[in-house]
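Class prep. Protein, please:
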Amino acid sequence: MSNSPLPLALSRRAFSASLLAAPWALSLTTPAIAAASVGQAAPDFSATDTSGQTRKLSDYKGKLVVLEWTNPGCPFVQKHYSGNMQSLQKEFGSKGVVWLAINSTETGSGDYLTPAKLASWLGEKQAAPTATLMDESGKIGQLYGARTTPHMYIVSPQGQLIYAGGIDSIASARVDDIKTATNYVRQGLNEALGGKPLSMASSRAYGCSIKYKA
């Protein structure tokens, strides 16, 4: 039997090709640009949450705010909703941080969930965002340059965008990687709560491409 590594190499290429062909294909992107640049004022927006209440970012001025782009159909979102995302929501919610989950999936996508179904999924996962906002038009996502799920942002109490990028340092859909990754959101929030500048203000977001309205 040959000891050539060729079959393994081919299998790896085939696996990579299957990832790229998948409807939830991994996307790596640079942080948001233009109006949502880190260090600048976070663009204000208004949206209806899953309970029908109107929420405005400016309503939370004076508090730290996390913006989390989400899509339950995405394996990368499912990875972090194995407990990691809920843990962050609960940990920092108890410290007064506002957490806004945002779904920019357009209604024609197979991943789209109605407000009631999205709320139900989050309830089943025992998630604890302050509110979950519906952005079917994609206007808020495009305003922030959100490209993946999850794509994470932190807004300071003064309304400045102080973080944009990935939730952590390992771009994979493997749950086991959570424990060895650097969680940029936890790190950034702890620094901000301690009155310190963020040691990592931007990173590359990873996850599934957001299904924006054409």
In short: The chain has one domain: 27-209. The radius of gyration is 18 Å. The first helix runs from residue 6 to 21. Residues 27-209 form a domain with the Glutaredoxin fold (CATH 3.40.30.10).
